[in-house]
UniProtKB/TrEMBL annotation:
GO biological process, one term: base-excision repair
Name this polypeptide is given: DNA-3-methyladenine glycosylase III
Any one GO MF annotation of this record: 4 iron, 4 sulfur cluster binding
InterPro entries per the UniProt record, alphabetical: DNA_glycosylase, HhH-GPD_domain, HhH_base_excis_C
Protein source organism: Halodesulfovibrio marinisediminis DSM 17456
Record-annotated HhH-GPD domain positions: 51-210
PANTHER family in alphabetical order: A/G-SPECIFIC ADENINE GLYCOSYLASE/ENDONUCLEASE III, DNA REPAIR GLYCOSYLASE MJ1434-RELATED
UniProt keyword terms in alphabetical order: 4Fe-4S, Iron, Iron-sulfur, Metal-binding
């Protein structure tokens, strides 16, 4: 899809920045800080971002715990682990053979580009680092943005099916908007602030689970009810 066609998936709003910041404030007032991502290290976040693909967080926690209990949650240690052993340990997260391969791809990339050091990539711009991450087989846009935002602390807005559902129900975007266009919907107007992006994504996920579920929208009690047309 062309960039122009993509933008047509976004409703023309006079002051989108104000609207989004007002929505954020309403969510933040109701939900408070989410303090994502729950992890002891940036590397744990990186691993969790792969494990959480197509599964719920409780399953990810079990897989992470398996690695932690064996003192394996370090880049070089995991790289030295045979892939089938890694797959067995992350089995609770589901799709464990695929995820073991993806994790290994990510670890090889991290070792190759930065000797597994987060600070070694400080010199790269957000766009450069994102482009690099997206070269890793198995790392898609949402996973890359999660790693950038929560592990690298870069201002990369994470969007997902929850974001699409809520903002479509508010008639602000089309349901079939492409990932990059939906990300631009936020990043084109909001201040590029890691804390804001961290909390905003967390609030969207929590809102979608609590009030704006796939089967029904509990608008009467939702903090975003005043933003409905
Ligand atoms: S539940 Fe209603 S008010 Fe809340 S986000 Fe969904 S559509 Fe908006």
């Amino acid at each position: 899809m062309s960039a122009a066609a993509g933008k047509r998936k976004v409703k023309n709003i006079m002051n989108r920045e104000k609207l989004l910041l007002d929505m954020f404030s309403a969510l933040h007032g109701e939900l408070g800080s989410s303090n994502w991502w729950p992890a002891d290290s940036a590397f744990e976040i990186m691993v969790g971002a792969v494990l959480t693909q197509n599964t719920n967080w409780k399953n990810v926690e079990k897989a992470i715990q398996n690695l932690k209990q064996r003192n394996l949650l370090a880049p070089q240690t995991l790289l030295d682990l045979p892939q089938d052993e890694l797959a067995a340990l992350i089995r609770p997260a589901g799709y464990y053979n695929v995820k073991a391969k993806r994790l290994r791809n990510l670890l090889l990339w991290f070792d190759d580009i930065a000797s597994c050091s987060f600070s070694a990539l400080d010199h790269m711009s957000l766009d450069e680092l994102r482009a690099q991450l997206l070269t890793v087989n198995g790392i898609g846009q949402e996973t890359a943005d999660s790693i950038l935002l929560y592990a690298f602390k870069r201002p990369s807005f994470v969007v997902d099916a929850y974001t699409r559902r809520i903002f479509n129900r508010h008639s602000l975007i089309e349901e079939d908007i492409m990932y990059e266009d939906l990300r631009d919907f936020f990043m084109d107007v909001l201040p590029h602030d890691v804390h804001l992006f961290n909390e905003f994504h967390a609030h969207i996920v929590r809102t979608a689970k609590k009030w704006c579920t796939k089967s029904k929208a509990l608008c009467e009690t939702c903090p975003l009810r005043s933003f409905l047309e």
